[in-house]
Amino acid sequence: MTAPGTILARCTPSPLRTLWAGLGLALLALCMKPGATQAQEAITRQKLVIYGGPQFREFLGCVNCDAYEVDSVWNIYSPLGWENSYSDYSHLHIYREPHGVYSACDPFASSPPRVLDPQNRLYGYLNISKVRPEGICAPHGNAAICDKLTAMCEKKNNIDGSPDRLD
Questions:
Q1: Residue 49 bridge partners (DSSP)
Q2: Torsion 159-70-90-88 (CA) sign
Q3: Is the pLDDT of residue 25 over 80?
Q4: Who's near 102: CB < 8 A, 6+ residues apart?
Q5: In the predicted model, what is the mean pLDDT of the chain?
Q6: Quick one: pLDDT band at residue 20, thresholds 50, 70, 90?
Q7: Is 84 a residue whose pLDDT tops 90?
Q8: Which of 159, 160, 66 is nearest to 104 (CA)?
Q9: What is the C-alpha separation between 50 and 37, in angstroms, rounded?
Q10: CB neighbours of 100 closer than 8 A, spacing ≥ 6?
Q11: Please, how many CA atoms are within 13 Å of residue 50, restricted to the half-sphere of its CB?
């Protein structure tokens, strides 16, 4: 051991100084590489998937995946994408109808699609109802997903009541 006044004792950094230096470097790295941070977040994010239909056996896509993933509902080129017209002409149209037992766009649907987490636990019901228990649009639901779902339903089904335009 060295005495407090020796040269070696003055050159050794204190644990607090080392901690602050490490935090400063970490913050600098975050500022310099935001893309790397977003990529890491995408890797560690829990994938929320949608199942619908009788006994919830039909896979309807991933609701929180990146727009470039094949099974993402945000992928405009995917058959599962909400923004394309493929599902208007396929068997998937029943999940976007303004009225229907399995529809996410019908607030009174008796069996809307379910959103499940990676452990197959119920995350919520994919439905625009603001009062359905465990619904995405309920007070304790996911506001971001609810807003996108509501916008899709309004666009596809003209829910707002305005007349269709052909211009």
A1: 62, 116
A2: positive
A3: no
A4: 52, 53, 94, 95, 109, 111, 112, 113
A5: 78
A6: low
A7: no
A8: 159
A9: 27
A10: 94, 106, 109
A11: 30
Q: State yes or no: pLDDT of 89 exceeds 90.
A: no
H/E segment holding residue 13: none
Long-range contacts of 4-7 (CB under 8 A, 24+ apart): none
Could you give the C-alpha distances from 108 to 25, 94, 98, 146, 159, in angstroms and in order? 53, 14, 10, 16, 14
Distance CA 106, CA 157 (A): 10
User: Average pLDDT, stretch 81-87?
Assistant: 78
Give residue 126's pLDDT band: very low, low, confident or very high (50, 70, 90). Answer: very high
Give 159's contacts (C-beta < 8 A, 6+ positions apart). 98, 105, 153
Is the entire prediction scored with pTM above 0.85?
no
Question: Tell me, what amino acid is at 143?
Answer: A
- For residue 85 the two structure tokens come to 């017209």
Our CA dihedral for 147, 92, 64, 150, rounded to 10 degrees, sits at 0
> Has residue 58 got a pLDDT over 50?
yes
Going by C-beta distance under 8 Å and a sequence separation of 6 or more, which residues neighbour residue 31?
Answer: none
